[in-house]
Write a structure and sequence with these properties.
With about 170 residues, the chain is of the alpha/beta class. The protein has helices spanning about 75-80, 105-125, 145-150; strands at about 5-15, 20-30, 35-40, 40-45, 55-60, 85-90, 130-140, 155-160, 165, 170. It has one domain: Alpha/Beta hydrolase fold, catalytic domain (Rossmann fold, 3-Layer(aba) Sandwich).
């Protein structure tokens, strides 16, 4: 596997939310990197470089409330250097650029759909899609992103007074 990191940027269309979802894909490559800026965040990547690898696992990262996928850039870069493709969707309506849906019931449903759309987009991507192993997909999240990851994996998020696992139900305050 290459020690450098490729990067592809795209936007997804979420018809249900009537929104555009920015998506970055990071992945292993042999191509040289250069410093790129993603809003206030900088990362050394090789834009639109070829992917190095076969049957590569995919990991989607869900950021926290009012956050940005780029706060997880170091984790995403290390995962890509270790041979993974990493999908970084920005949860429109619950991000630093648009936090208009924070605290609403629609927010979690939108987040789950964003992760599904990001996984589908990675699988269909002309550079990374053909190298992905469809049976090797994971989700990582922070804060409400962790609740998103658990729900994508089959957990049943409900609102409640505490954050705990009880009787197989995930409670996210």
């Amino acid at each position: 596997m290459g020690l450098n990191v490729g990067c592809r940027l795209t936007e997804l269309s979420d018809v249900a939310q009537d929104a555009r979802i920015p998506l970055a894909l990071l992945y292993p490559t042999q191509q040289p990197e250069q410093t790129e800026r993603f809003g206030p965040y900088a990362l050394d990547v090789a834009r639109d470089a070829p992917l190095d690898g076969q049957r590569v696992a995919l990991i989607a990262i869900s950021h926290g409330n009012g956050g940005s996928p780029w706060v997880h850039r170091d984790l995403a870069k290390r995962l890509a250097q270790a041979g993974y493709v990493v999908a970084l969707p920005e949860h429109t309506g619950n991000s630093r650029n648009d936090n208009s849906l924070a605290g609403t019931a629609a927010n979690l449903a939108n987040r789950l759909r964003h992760i599904t759309l990001a996984i589908d987009a990675a699988c269909a991507d002309v550079v990374v899609g053909k190298a992905l192993a469809s049976d090797r997909v994971g989700v990582v999240g922070h804060s409400i992103g962790a609740c998103t990851a658990l729900a994508v994996a089959g957990g049943k998020p409900v609102t409640g007074p505490a954050r705990r696992v009880m009787e197989g139900r995930i409670l996210c305050a």
